[in-house]
Design goal:
Strand content: 35-45%
Radius of gyration: 55 Å
Number of strands: 118
Strand order of the largest sheet: 109-108-110-114-115-117
Oligomer: single chain
Helix content: under 10%
Length: 1606
């Protein structure tokens, strides 16, 4: 058996099943991504597209954006679990937002129905480093767009784009609303999210070391990480502001840039490139030799390339540095020392270490060991390090405790009052233990206890109850133990108390508090007396009177958690966090109060003082009104009216103003006159009772109004208006009445008024004030004025160099206009509206004024417009120069004083603008460029051009130039240079430094071929541009032509899968050859191939060709494998070949013969050998409607193998859904090997069939049906069999089950009411000596099937709901749990089914099949854990009756019926079996009496029916319960001789099917019993003669109908 292959097959099978059947669970385990798919529709339900889709996750991070085709279909892939916002935009203004949740599966059929909205902006947002860039398509008729950020308006624009310059590190929501030309607003846009991207890091630095480059940069605020790019490719993401790029090529230049990641891991722009070159490689030191000497070792080694010195290491530590190739190192004799050497280059970089050379010894034990006890049962062991030791072993009392590399360890939980002896040893890296240290002994402390008595303030220990005693350490902060004292006052503390000082605190639950400090030395403390005191625990109480309430106050007790408040000695409230309580009481009734504190341990403290007080009557609510709305002369604003509502029971009232009594009266109104203006008065009123006792005051304040006086105002003529302004009246709020020519024209709350009038006409005005209370003051004196004409409208000017231009708008009715420059009239015109003022001075300030005048020539006010002419823009002088990188421009400073800049033109095109006086233009080499400069001022006035300068950049010699010697050639490679069209290569004579032109090439690769072996050749190279100009030549570089390679075959072999040395059909083999290059240079372009001899190759043999091998270095070996495959019908014979290798330089390998045999194949035989059922609960049971795992084993029962095998499942019609991947394929299956297929099944039927179609590489197909029953137990997958040779000729499994007669065509009956079924049985016992009938399992299964089919019950109506729940047996505790009338399964089932079915009552049907006996005179059922030595392990029948009777007492429970297939004579216990004829005489006489026919009495109404059969007393149930028993207590219950049922159960089921019915289709209790009794008794009499089985029955209702048959 090839176990390795078996495991592989099992693993692959499980992988496939995990993917195809358990996809949901695998998705959870491995964080699977999902898809969101669907299609976009319009409002009419028609597809619409193309649609733009934007997807955000719950953090507003944009994760996808795409555009659908015209069909509107879309699919979003790689979507993890989570919540998403998806915005959809269609053509013509269609749009909608969907919220989608992905949870454990693909989200399909996301089909948004979009509505058209042409006035809704469709927003696009692109994050940039400058901010959020918003764009949208223009809306027809749009005037402006309002932009919102996070629902706040930020700007308005008439453009269709906007850049919101926000700071990076936060995501914002944006909306845009269109404002149309008619000022209507469009619909708010769908919310899109944007942000600013992070700026790239600054101050990037690169440092090379060996073949590593370390980058550092300044951190960016709020960055979450950085991306690092090498040569334009991303190589890393890091959260640090540094990164080291390891394992690069030596002697190579690299460019690096970085970018910054924001809070959503989106990156910003990349930084500028920075360059770094790695160092030459330091080769590994080879040839290290170590020669031992006296206390020293002599070392020598070979030189390493690029090393300038060497580091010597001993046991990993640096011990010496040498510039020569040897060293002497001092060592300690007998110790193990390993040495290695590494080279160091000129940069200080250290190369790889050489292979080590070693000797050996062990380490000494640690010294300076200290053992400390923490005064508990914990010991701390500490020691000094032993240099070089890898770890230490710690021993305690000669037993190893631990191995550790630390220098201390704490051993906890040791035995108290015990000695512990410790020692240590040191270990080497390979675990070799050294000598042990000295012994160190310490003893753990002894523990004690404290006993004491609490006494109250009266010295009584019997009155202290529920007090709490707390033991603290000496600091009184760490609680060690607590104890609750009973009424005797005694306490004991004994939780690991060692010698030392302790504090005891006591809280006495009303008896007071106390405590003590104790010291324990070497013995227990006994009879410790602690006195309790109430001092400081009694609150001080006082009471505050109020209207209809009393407020109880008390002093705070610091240690109190809350307070109990008592009224008239009755607890009324517990108060937490306060020291007062408001109690609502009737006025005038005396009430007493007392308070007790509650401490942290819920103990009540002593009583406080008692205070008695009473509440007062309520005062009336006062209404105060200031008289207003008239004129000040009449007192409006300073007269007051007071009134109040009568208080029941009060005869008169006392009224106060500012504390002075105004009146005591019974009337409910009062008037105040001639009070002061703007003055506040305080009024108070209270109720006076019959005893002339004033109650609590009602207090209110009122302020008289400020006095309203005549305002002071003035008039001022304005353009087309007159301005009236006035000063506010101090203290008055209100408005002002304006009168023109005697008429009221306005009421204002401002301090000025502009009255539009005809210019030149006089108007007269007056004012009066009115406050907010409508009180009007006197009018002011009358004043008169007139208005003016306006100056010209929109008077604006602009400057162009040294002249100005002005425009204005005409004024209606004005006679003309005058324009002044610097107060000098330059224009007087009746109708002109523009002016050009030319030939002014450059850079000069002018003031212009304009006014209108009327027909009399009187001017109105002037409007002023200051303006300055521009400076004159002059040309500058330009100079230029060029190098190999750039053209540098310099020019003279402009004479302009205003802000200005310089525009740089290249070949007539503007390339940049700058404020500096120079510019470097980095242009491609090889072309002439001409430049000139123009000055432009801040007004965009451009001056004349400078002189022109023309220059060209020569192309430099190629970068990254490499010249490499090879076999008979030198190879050139270099980087293409921008601007170069060709490259000139020169051969250099090193002795004369003379150059000879070799070649001109346009490629970046060139080979100088046909050279001599073992010779050096030197070269220079230069670039040539398009004009034929040659740039500088490179430095001289040399290449050494290598000597020729030589190929030698060192090994050849043939292998195949089975290891039998011959190639079978459909088997892979390999012809393997190993060659070595033992020449002096690399062998290149190796072409291996197998040349067959005549007749070797046939169509049934396939040999794969190999690709060319680029290179084989000197000294390297190469294994060449030819894959050989024999097809199915391979012929038997020898296959002969020649192995050949052709080499680039002609150094071919000599042909080498190779042979191997082929053999015809024996076909495989794939057979289904076994199957198993497993559930997630560890059961091997297959229920109905629940998932279980079916495992099928397929074994190859042949010596022939198959390299392909497939198995395809076909399920019968009982399966609604089939697996899409029910075809599973496997690889090589050898003889005797097997594979297992596991998949989930769930059936709603009693049985089903799975067909397994097997196929092997011989194209043999087999269809194997496997018939499976539900509600049945099977073997588990661990128990599947494996057949060994010789293999069986036929294996049959899963044959179709033939249902027994009882289970075919079961009718469906009708019950009088819904019922609950209990079906139980014990098939085995924990005690293997107790026997059980073999029919019990089948009885239970078939009866449960009848409860399903015959009575129509569902799983939720049966106990247990799952058949397999008690497969392992029903214990005594299970019986109690099932029938417990308080919390049992049966009661729960009754309640839940009544709620589910909405029925009024249910019946209970109980079936039990099992064993019984007699224990202590009681008839009992045998649970699974029955034990004769434990009477409590049995379940008495009387307990079953008692529990069922209690359940039946529920108002919702009707009839209870039991079917008991059990006898009470189990053979493992004492039996009480009585044969026929052996009954006691009295019993016989009794029976004869019973057989005499009695006259049947007429039953009275409501009288219970007489029991049909009287049971033995010990199993007599209550009258309300009906019981069918399989036999009497002195008989056995037998199994059917032809079936596997119990006889009682067999005839019970046949009777239920209808055979017990008398023909009226109503099956009664008596009919069923008579049928079962007759058939069981007749059968057993014939079989067992004098030991028959007679079923018995108890019922009070023999005519009760059990069910109605169809």
């Amino acid at each position: 058996m090839k176990r390795i292959i078996l495991n592989k097959i099992l693993f692959n099978s499980k992988q496939v099943l995990c993917i195809t059947i358990l996809m949901f669970f695998c998705g959870i385990a491995y964080g699977q991504d999902y898809e969101i798919s669907g299609r976009t529709f319009n409002e009419a339900g028609k597809k619409i597209g193309p649609a733009r889709i934007v997807v955000y996750d719950s953090n507003k991070k944009r994760i996808a954006e795409l555009e659908t085709p015209a069909s509107g279909k879309f699919k979003l892939k790689n979507i993890p679990d989570g919540k998403y916002i998806i915005n959809f935009y269609g053509p013509d203004g269609y749009g909608i937002t969907e919220n989608v949740t992905v949870s454990g599966a693909d989200k399909k059929d996301v089909n948004p129905q979009m509505n058209p909205n042409p006035d809704q902006v469709q927003l696009k947002i692109k994050p940039t480093s400058e901010g959020s860039s918003l764009t949208w398509r223009a809306i027809s008729g749009a005037a402006n767009y309002i932009i919102y950020r996070d629902n706040k308006e930020i700007t308005t624009t008439n453009q269709t784009s906007y850049l919101d310059e926000v700071e990076p590190g936060e995501t914002y929501g944006y909306n845009v609303i269109v404002i149309k030309n008619d000022q209507s607003m469009g619909t708010r846009s769908i919310t899109e999210y944007g942000k600013a991207l992070m700026q790239p890091p600054e101050n990037i630095e690169a440092e090379a070391k060996k073949n590593n480059v370390k980058l550092t940069w300044f951190p960016v605020e709020d960055a979450t990480g950085y991306n690092v790019y090498r040569d334009g490719e991303k190589v890393n993401s890091t959260a640090d502001n540094s990164y080291t790029d390891f394992n690069l090529k030596y002697e190579t230049e690299y460019s690096y840039s970085t970018s910054t990641l924001d809070h959503q891991s989106d990156e910003g722009d990349q930084s500028n490139n920075i360059f770094a070159s790695t160092h030459p490689e330091i080769k590994k030191v080879k040839g290290l030799k170590a020669e031992s000497g006296e206390n020293q070792v002599f070392l020598e080694w070979k030189a390493a390339d690029n090393a300038v010195k060497y580091y010597v290491y001993q046991n990993g530590g640096l011990v010496d540095s040498s510039t020569v190739l040897n060293s002497t190192v001092k060592t300690e004799a007998g110790t193990e020392n390993c040495f290695s050497v590494s080279g160091v280059d000129k940069h200080g970089s250290i190369g790889p270490r050489s292979d080590a050379a070693c000797d050996k010894s062990v380490f000494s034990a640690p010294d300076s060991i200290a053992v400390t006890n923490d005064k508990r049962n914990n010991n701390l062991i500490e020691w000094n390090a032993v240099e070089g030791a890898s770890s230490y072993n710690l021993y305690a009392n000669e037993k190893l405790q631990t191995n550790t590399s630390k220098l201390q360890i704490t051993l906890k939980g040791l035995k108290w009052d015990s000695d512990y002896t410790y020692y240590l040893t040191s270990l080497t890296e390979d675990g070799i233990e050294g000598p042990k240290s000295g012994d160190y002994t310490v003893r753990t402390p002894k523990i004690f206890k404290i006993e004491g008595i609490l006494y109250d303030e009266n010295g009584d220990d019997k009155n202290v109850d529920q007090a709490k005693v707390f033991l603290y350490d000496s600091s009184s902060t760490n609680l060690l133990e607590e104890y609750v004292v009973s009424r005797n006052g005694k306490f004991t503390l004994e939780n690991e108390i060692i010698a030392g000082n302790y504090t005891i605190m006591v809280y006495g639950n009303g008896s007071g508090n106390g405590g003590d400090r104790v010291q324990i030395t070497n013995r227990d403390i006994e009879n410790l007396r602690i006195n309790l005191s109430t001092e400081g625990l009694r609150p001080e109480v006082w009471v505050e009177r109020g209207v209809g309430q009393l407020t109880v106050h008390w002093s705070d007790i610091p240690q109190a958690k809350s307070y109990n408040v008592y009224k008239n000695d009755r607890l009324i409230q517990n108060v937490i966090g306060d020291t007062s309580y408001v109690d609502i009481v009737a006025p005038g009734v005396p009430t007493s109060y007392m308070v007790r504190s509650i401490d942290l341990y819920d103990l009540e403290g002593p009583t406080s003082n008692t205070v008695t007080e009473k509440a007062s009557y309520a005062p009336p609510e006062l209404s105060i009104t200031v008289v207003a709305g008239g004129y000040t002369v009449d007192g409006s604003g300073r007269n007051i009216d007071l009134s109040w509502v009568e208080v029941p029971g009060v005869q008169k009232y006392a009224l106060y103003r500012d504390g002075e009594l105004l009146t005591k009266q019974a009337e409910l109104t009062y008037e105040e006159r001639d009070l002061k203006w703007n003055t506040t008065y305080i009024y108070a009123i209270n109720s006076i009772d019959a005893d002339d006792f004033e109650g609590v005051n009602f207090v209110d304040t009122v302020t008289t109004h400020p006095e309203v006086t005549a305002p002071n105002f003035k008039l001022e003529g304005k353009v087309n208006s007159i301005k009236i302004s006035w000063e506010a009246i101090p203290g008055m709020e209100g408005k002002y009445k304006i009168f023109r020519n005697g008429g009221n024209i306005a009421d204002l709350d401002a301090l000025e008024f502009i009255d539009p009038v005809t210019p030149g006409t006089e108007y007269c005005y007056s004012l009066a004030a009115e406050d907010t209370f409508k009180t009007v003051g006197p009018e002011a004196e009358i004043q008169c004025a007139k208005g003016f004409f306006a100056p010209p409208g929109n008077f604006t000017g602009r400057v162009l160099r040294n002249y100005t231009a002005f425009t204005w708008e005409s004024v209606l009715a004005a006679s003309g206009y005058r324009i002044y420059r610097d107060n000098e009239l330059i224009l007087d015109t009746p109708d002109a509206t523009e002016l050009v003022d030319e030939n002014l001075e450059f850079d000069t300030y002018y003031t212009y004024e304009a006014c209108s005048y009327d027909k009399e020539g009187d001017e109105g006010p002037r409007i002023t417009y200051p303006i300055t002419t521009h400076e004159e823009v002059l040309a500058v002088d330009l100079s230029a120069s060029a190098d190999l990188e750039k053209i540098s421009l310099n020019w003279t400073q402009s004479t302009l004083k205003v802000d200005h800049e310089y525009r740089v033109y290249r070949d007539g095109e503007l390339i940049t603008a700058t404020k500096t006086l120079s510019h470097d233009d980095f242009m491609p080499a090889g072309k002439f460029y001409c430049y000139d400069i123009k000055v432009v001022d801040k007004y965009d006035t451009e001056g004349p051009p400078s002189n022109s300068e023309c220059y060209k950049i020569l192309v430099n010699y190629p970068r990254k130039l490499q010249v490499t010697g090879d076999v008979r050639r030198v190879i050139f490679s270099f980087k293409k240079m921008i601007g170069a069209v060709a490259y000139n290569i020169y051969e250099v004579d090193k002795e004369t430094d003379s150059l000879t032109f070799l070649a001109r090439t346009k490629s970046t690769y060139y080979e100088d071929k046909g050279l001599e072996f073992d010779t050096e050749y030197c070269y220079q190279i230069a670039s040539e541009d398009g004009d034929g100009d040659e740039g500088p030549k490179s430095p001289t570089m040399c290449g050494y032509v290598l000597p020729p390679p030589h190929l030698t075959l060192i090994e050849k072999r043939f292998v195949e899968n089975t290891g039998n040395g011959q190639l079978d059909g459909r088997e892979n083999g390999w012809a393997i050859f190993t060659i070595v290059n033992d020449g002096r240079s690399p062998a290149r372009e190796l072409k291996p191939w197998l040349k067959p001899e005549d007749g070797t190759m046939t169509p049934s043999l396939k040999i794969d060709s190999l690709s060319t091998i680029p290179i084989l270095n000197v000294g390297d070996t190469l294994q060449i494998e030819f894959s050989v495959y024999a097809k199915l019908k391979i012929e038997t014979g020898d296959r002969n070949f020649f192995f050949r290798v052709e080499e680039f330089s002609g150094q071919d390998l000599d042909p080498e013969p190779m042979s191997f045999p082929t053999l015809k194949v024996t076909p495989p035989n794939l057979v289904v050998t076994d199957f198993a059922i497993d559930s997630e609960w560890g059961q091997n049971y297959l229920p109905i409607n629940e998932v279980a795992t079916l495992t099928i084993r397929v074994q190859n029962l042949s010596i022939g193998l198959t390299d392909t095998a497939s198995a395809k499942f076909t399920r019968d019609s009982s399966f609604v859904v089939s697996d899409e991947d029910e075809l599973h394929e496997f690889g090589l299956i050898g003889g005797g090997e097997y594979f297992d297929l596991s998949f989930e099944v769930m059936s709603r039927e009693k049985d089903f069939t799975i067909e397994l179609e097997l196929y092997d590489y011989f194209e043999t197909r087999k269809v194997v049906p496997i018939h499976i029953e539900t509600m049945k137990s099977y073997k588990g997958s661990k128990d599947l069999i494996v057949h060994k040779t010789p293999y069986p000729e036929k294996v049959t499994i899963g044959e179709k089950i033939q249902l027994p007669e009882l289970l075919t065509d079961i009718p469906r009956s009708i019950l009088n009411r819904d019922a609950i079924g209990i079906v139980l049985g014990n098939t085995s016992f924990l005690d293997s000596t107790i026997t059980a009938k073999s029919s019990i399992g089948k009885n239970v299964k078939q009866v449960r099937e009848y409860f399903y089919e015959f009575f129509g019950m569902e799983d939720h109506e049966i106990v247990p709901s799952q058949y397999w729940l008690y497969n392992n047996g029903i214990s005594s505790n299970d019986f109690k749990t099932i029938f417990d009338p308080g919390l049992g399964f049966v009661k729960d089932k009754v309640i839940s089914n009544l709620e589910y079915s909405m029925k009024d009552t249910v019946d209970i049907l109980v079936y039990f099949s099992g064993e019984g006996t007699t224990i202590n005179g009681k008839k009992v059922l045998l649970p699974y854990d029955a034990d004769e030595s434990k009477s409590t392990s049995f379940y008495p029948v009387e307990d079953l009756y008692r529990d069922l009777e209690a359940i039946q007492s529920m108002p919702d429970v009707g009839e209870v019926t039991l079917f008991m297939d059990v006898d009470f004579n189990n053979s493992s216990f004492t039996q009480n079996i009585v044969k026929v004829g052996d009954e006691p005489i009295d019993d016989k006489n009794d029976k004869k009496k019973k057989k005499k026919k009695k006259k049947k009495k007429k039953k009275k109404k409501d009288e219970p029916e007489e029991p049909l059969v009287v049971l033995p007393k010990e199993i007599m149930p209550p009258q309300s319960i009906t019981v069918f028993y399989a036999s009497n207590t002195t008989q056995l219950a037998y199994e059917h001789p032809d079936y596997k049922n119990g006889l009682f159960t067999y005839y019970l089921l046949k009777g239920l099917r209808g055979e017990a019915d008398n023909g009226d289709k109503s099956l009664t209790v008596a009919e069923l019993h008579n049928y079962v009794q007759k058939n069981v008794e007749d059968t057993t009499k014939a079989l067992y003669n004098d030991l028959p089985q007679v079923p018995i029955l108890f019922t009070s209702s023999p005519d009760r109908v059990i069910c109605r048959l169809p």
